Every structure is written in C-alpha cells, then in structure tokens.
C-alpha cells in the first residue's frame, strides 16, 4: 500500500523566515511610505523641526557657572607665609615698651596709695664747734679744777645738745695720764694704762649743763676691773671736776654731826636703756654720779641719767659721733 500522507506535517520554513527582521530608521521610513501614510517631505520637515527644538532648548539652558574661589581663600592667598626679620624685632620692642609702661604705672599707683609710716624725729643732739680749755701747767689740783669749771660755766649749751672741749696743758693736748696727775687722782695704774691717750670733756644742755668725761678704752677687762677698784676714792678724786662734793652732800643730808658721819655714798648697779651702769646714790637715794661702758671701746663719766641716755646714742668707738 502506498504510504499514507501525514496530515499534521507542515511545510518547512526557510532560514530567512526564522531570523527576525532588523529594524532601521531607513526601513521604518520605507514601511511608512509603502503604507501611504506620509511622504519623504513630511518626514524631513518633522526631523528638521525636532532639530530646531533641540537647539532652542540648548540655547535656553544657561551654561554652568564656573566655581570661583571663596573670600576666605582669597584672603589666605594674600597672607605671607612668614614675617620678615625686622617685623619680629619691632613687635618684640613694642611689647617690651608697653609692659614697662604698665609696670611703672602700676608701681606708681600703689606707691601713692600706700600709707606712709609716720616719721619719728629724735631730739637733735648736734656737736657744735669745740672750745678750748687751756691749763698753764703749773696749777695745783685746786687751781686746775677751778679753771676747768670756770670755762665750762661760761659756755651756754642749747637744750639737749652736746658741747665738747679741747684740753691743753702748757700749749699741748692733755693726755689721760697728765689729766689724772694734774687733778691728783689716785686711780689704779692698770686703769690709766687701759684708757686711751686723749680724754674728751664736754657739756650736755640739760638742767643748766651737765658735764661728762669720755675715754677711749684700750683694754676692756683691765678698765672694768680698774673702775670697780677706783670706786672707793672716785668721787673724792674726780667729783669736784663735775661739781660733785661728797662731803658737802653728806653734811646737808644729816641734821646733826653724828648723822652726817653715819651716812655714806655708795655705788650700785643700774640699767639705763638696757645698758649696765654703776651709779653713786646719796643718802636720800638720788643719783649724783654714774659711769658706764657704752661699748667695749667707750667709757663715760657724768652726773645725770638723762645725759648718759643721750651719750648712749651719740657716742661710741671712743668718741662723740
């Protein structure tokens, strides 16, 4: 039997039918033209209008503004990287000058505002020009003491001031040994040797003038011991030179001769302005004579406590300052 035809079989498709047709702008145009919808002129006009619209849009859109540097960057570009050498020195000098002016101003302000301490003025104790007491050299004890007292009484010393005298004996400055010999003092020999060569006689302007005698001390130990040993006869030897007469003082104290003989003048330790001194007291307890070592180079003999106080501040080193 002849074979039966396959009713379900289909004619085979060609390779061209299996590949999809590629669409291009030119193919689209031909297809549109074949359909009779538009002509080439219509398509050209439409394309031209599209191009014109695109160009107008580009012209209407402003170009982007280029970025400009900010003000901060402009300012920073103008700042120099480093200051020059002379500018640094100038700034330093100006700074120092300003600080100095401020410091002076502040110091002046506090100096003006600070309270001033009250100034305490001590009594003036000046030493006027030295006068001269001249002894001829032939006087005895009484004559020499009288001549010295007469010269001192003729000089008026202002209140609380000091006046010194220059001693001469036979036209030359008197020495310590010659003064003790002239007034016939019985002072111990070690004491005389322990004192300086030239004594200083003076007056203090207080209660009519108080005499004082100042010696330079060469050996403090010998001078101190010698003064203690001399106390027994000191007022008898040097008292009249200071117008201190022990016998007259004792006679005026006692109402009878027996009382006068029973009284005596004694030296005692006293402290004056924190300095040790030895004072002679009369029977009524009044100081009539005293001596003190102001320092280890200065010995002072006088009659009043006030005179010693002044000499403690105005004498030292064996002399009146």
Compose a concise summary of this entry:
The chain has helices at 15-18, 25-35, 40-60, 71-78, 85-113, 141-153, 176-182, 189-194, 220-230, 234-238, 246-253, 257-262, 305-314; strands at 131-135, 162-169, 172-173, 200-204, 210-216, 266-272, 275-281, 287-295, 298-302, 315-316, 319-320. By secondary structure, the protein is of the alpha+beta class.
Tell me what the structure shows.
- With 321 residues, the chain is of the alpha+beta class.
- It has a domain at 131-320.
- Helices cover 43% and strands 18% of the residues.
- A hairpin with a 2-residue loop joins strand 2 and strand 3.
- The radius of gyration is 65 Å and the shape is rod-shaped.
Describe the secondary-structure layout.
Elements: H1 15-18, H2 25-35, H3 40-60, H4 71-78, H5 85-113, E1 131-135, H6 141-153, E2 162-169, E3 172-173, H7 176-182, H8 189-194, E4 200-204, E5 210-216, H9 220-230, H10 234-238, H11 246-253, H12 257-262, E6 266-272, E7 275-281, E8 287-295, E9 298-302, H13 305-314, E10 315-316, E11 319-320
Parallel strand pairs: 1-2
Antiparallel strand pairs: 2-3, 2-4, 4-5, 5-9, 6-7, 7-8, 8-9, 10-11
